[in-house]
Amino acid sequence: AQSVTQPDIHITVSEGASLELRCNYSYGATPYLFWYVQSPGQGLQLLLKYFSGDTLVQGIKGFEAEFKRSQSSFNLRKPSVHWSDAAEYFCAVAARGTDKLIFGTGTRLQVFP
Amino acid sequence: ETGVTQSPTHLIKTRGQQVTLRCSSQSGHNTVSWYQQALGQGPQFIFQYYREEENGRGNFPPRFSGLQFPNYSSELNVNALELDDSALYLCASTGQIEETQYFGPGTRLLVL
Predict the structure, then answer these.
(1) Alpha carbon separation from B52 to A51, B70, B110 (Å, rounded)
(2) How many helices (DSSP H) and strands (DSSP E) are in chain B?
(3) What's the CA gap between B112 and B85, in Å, rounded?
(4) Contacts of A42 in chain B (CB under 8 A)
(5) What angle do CA A64, A68, A69 make, to 5 degrees?
(6) A9 pLDDT exceeds 80?
(7) Whether residue A105 has pLDDT greater than 70
(8) pLDDT in tens, A29-60
(9) Quick one: which of A12, A70, A72, B38 has the most CB atoms within 10 Å?
(10) Do A43 and B103 touch (CB under 8 A)?
């Protein structure tokens, strides 16, 4: 069955520190890959996506993600975290040619000053 | 270009009642998807509408139904509400030539 795993439920970092959020997927073929961010009580905002090509993808707000086929992973990174990055982060996949998303359970990011 | 909008923002119902949630898709988008996000969980796909027809459905019972109108706006209807239906309901729209979903702010439903 298709699934997305975000192993870290809750991560705490200091402002200015680097960040890596993990995402692993189980899928028959390489799917489309996404990272969304959700602030408290809000909808989801797209950070970045991978369809094909360069496996290092740049997104908004200084985020990037790297697709590693051999590890079935799509980890999200940011070199220097800002307090405003505190939110819930969701990794999602969709079968190629479709847009129906399967989400992970999310990682809550807390940022200390 | 207007984004995805949803109404109402919050709603309280009692068990057994029926509810209708509304979504206006982003300008130029003809596909609308609905998701249910329970507290502490990731969103779960309910169904999708494309050009007024259902185009895929997740693992939700028939009491979850929907409509899409000629202007591509959409409704989600839930009959015989249960306590477990309490969740944030998210609508997302997709354009014709891309496969990325853009989400609205959601409707938070509480069933008592």
Answers:
(1) 27, 7, 28
(2) 0, 11
(3) 10
(4) 105-106
(5) 140
(6) yes
(7) yes
(8) 888 999 999 998 788 999 999 998 999 999 99
(9) A72
(10) yes
